[in-house]
What does this fold into?
Amino acid sequence: MANIVVLGTQWGDEGKGKVVDMLAENADLVVRFQGGNNAGHTLVVDGEEFISHLIPSGILQGKKCLIGNGVVVDPAVLTEEMEGLRSRGLEISSENFYISRNAHIIMPYHKTIDAARENSLGNNKIGTTGRGIGPCYEDKVSRRGIRFVDLLSGDKGRDKIVQRTKEKNDYLKKIFGVDPLDTDAIITEFNGYAETLAPYITNVSGMISEAAKGGRHVLFEGAQGTYLDIDHGTYPFVTSSNTVAGNACCGSGIGPTEITGVLGIVKAYTTRVGEGPFPTELFDEIGDYMQKQGSEFGATTGRKRRCGWLDMVMLKNAAILNGLTGMAVTKLDVLTGLNQLDVCVGYKYQGKTLTDFPADLGVLAECEPVYETLAGWTNDISNARSLDELPQNAITYLNFIEEAVGVPINIVSVGPGRRETIVNKNLFE
Ligand code: GDP
Ligand code: IMO
Ligand code: MG
It folds into this structure.
């Protein structure tokens, strides 16, 4: 039995979807445990691209896919995604797809509040995906949320929706001057979801526990990345959930002793979408090169991703925060053609070198990255399927990462396709 958490070590979009899809071949269950459709995970199989926002990335491998209680789910997006996959010939049924009865629902007013808040912040906006994620988690924590179990409770659930919509309409009008949402239309829409989604609503925690007892392999698919974590990220430029490994337990309803490994996905350089600090960001032609070679556009919002050098200060801290047992380095092929590769090994701040990631964004803004420079390579590496097929300089780059972080590299990804991968260690042996 192996129960492995796969998560992002940077600011999201590290290639989690690709790695989960590839690993899912040998897994039995794939579970999302936090975030919502702010995530966009791209899978490329035989040249065909799939982007999943909510349904776990094990679906293309025909595995059982579960949405845990820690995920916030927009039923409009979920039903569209289910239909989209079906129209491409995939089976989505109550035999392979499950939603936790405790998961919270993103309501129409959450999306309106997200947009209204961002508008009101002007230049100080967070740059959210506008999917209502923050307002939904707020309601969860303040005990005003609507859960999937409410969809199953008939009039009681409907009364809750009516009461909450009224409250939010007052808030939207008074604080932002926004027109009220139509409660009747929301009720009609949600009656529809109650009917379509009822067959999938279940006790996800119990299912995972049964599977683990039966010796099944479970993959926990993280969304976002360590530096978007609500506690450990670059607050307030973060998302509204814990993205670190510990939340795989809370967000799916299993105990920490069930987890057998934590695989951190490390993009071979760094990207960020949305606002917030980014010490190694590049504003020159090298940043443009990464952006173009890596097709760095957000899979959810289509925004251009900001690009920069790899940052060891971040990665070392991510190894601690997540208890990484292994790393998968992705998009190594994107660096092909660069003469020199800078790697940040510390931050210069007021004459001192910091090796600890600062919590104070004011300090972080003043930090100057300290770089070590490694040699690049020019040979196309996208056909490499074992480490010894890589140019020596690429191996040196990987060794540098492994030594600096102190965690073994289990997987190297050299292209978006499922097979464009070097597997250094079988995680399910
Ligand atoms: P996620 O959110 O972590 O799943 O990552 P995204 O899917 O948002 O972004 C990663 C992008 O890089 C996607 O377009 C992937 O198809 C692509 N990708 C993943 N791994 C590789 C790789 O090794 N090389 C290249 N060139 N592209 C990759
Ligand atoms: P995946 O799973 C990259 C960012 C947004 C914004 C901040 C808050 O594909 O890696 P939110 O809508 O969550 O309130 O936005 O978080 N963000 C992501 N950035 N990848 C993601 O997901 C992200 N999900 C949220 O851009 O800066
Ligand atoms: Mg993404």
Observations:
- The pocket of magnesium ion (ligand 3) is lined by residues 12-13, 39-41, 299 (CB under 6 Å).
- The chain is about 30% helix and 20% strand.
- The radius of gyration is 22 Å.
